[in-house]
Specification:
EC number: 2.7.12.2
Protein name: mitogen-activated protein kinase kinase
Low-confidence stretches: 44-53
Number of helices: 8
GO molecular function: ATP binding; MAP kinase kinase activity; protein serine/threonine kinase activity
CATH topology: Transferase(Phosphotransferase), domain 1
Structural class: mainly alpha
InterPro entries: Kinase-like_dom_sf, Prot_kinase_dom, Ser/Thr_kinase_AS
Strand order of the largest sheet: 1-4
Domain Protein kinase: 1-152
Number of strands: 4
Length: 171
């Protein structure tokens, strides 16, 4: 919820595409606040319909359109958020991937998913991630759609520190 709120501000107010959303760029404070960090490769767009063409950021979290060298916009951050939520790891592929094989894998292979029916993941979370991880950027959920998603409404006001302490105590 906090990452989505941060992306709403970046995309809607500042017209900034982060271009490097990944776990190591999401910082957690001792009070449970989540902060987006590392704006070194972010780019400002002149309007909400502008597109980027540059190829910067962490390859394993890049959207397919970025890897293919197509124009991209704010929705590429949604792909990266989805991968961050599933903690996608390129080593999950059947064999170690070299750089070019990794790029092809991201563009050509099926997207990673959270397993529906797994008691660790709610149906709402699975749906939220699925809406982020749509290969066709034109069909991918926007930050406006995601900010109103049932998963976020269900957990509105939940403190991340409380969730983490619950998870630690439950295990």
């Amino acid at each position: 919820m906090q990452v989505v709120a941060g992306l709403v501000h970046l995309h809607k107010e500042l017209h900034v595409v982060h271009r490097d959303i990944k776990p190591s760029n999401l910082l957690l404070t001792s009070t449970g606040a989540l902060k987006i960090s590392d704006f070194g490769v972010s780019g400002q767009l002149t309007s909400s319909v502008s597109n980027c063409l540059s190829w910067v950021g962490t390859v394993t979290y890049m959207s397919p359109e970025r890897i293919k060298g197509d124009q991209y916009s704010f929705d590429s951050d949604m792909w990266s958020l989805g991968l961050t939520l599933v903690e996608w790891d390129a080593s999950a592929a059947q064999q170690p991937l070299g750089f070019w094989e990794l790029l092809e894998y991201i563009v050509e292979e099926a997207v990673p998913v959270l397993p529906r029916g797994d008691p660790r993941f709610s149906a709402e979370l699975c749906d939220f991630v699925a809406k982020c991880l749509v290969k066709d950027a034109r069909q991918r959920a926007t930050i406006d759609v995601l900010s109103k998603h049932a998963f976020l409404r269900t957990h509105k006001g939940t403190n991340l520190a409380e969730l983490l302490s619950w998870a630690v105590n439950a295990s």
